[in-house]
Amino acid sequence: RSLSEAMSVEKIAAIKAKRLAKKRTTIKSNDYSDTLGVVGSDFRAILDYDVDLTKDIISRERQWRTRTTVLQSNG
Hints:
Blueprint: H1 3-6, H2 9-26, H3 40-60, H4 67-73
């Protein structure tokens, strides 16, 4: 049995409209004020600190050099 046989066109349209309305309310906004109670400028400062910390950690990591990477780096 198909959907159009089971329900009227109006009922199907109402379900589609309800689903679209629900989808619109569940979309995340770009406002970071509700994220951990942090406002936008504080969020930017935390993000900058995190980026700096990550760069520091990556700079201290040992680079493994294999024969292939040595040959590629020397041209």
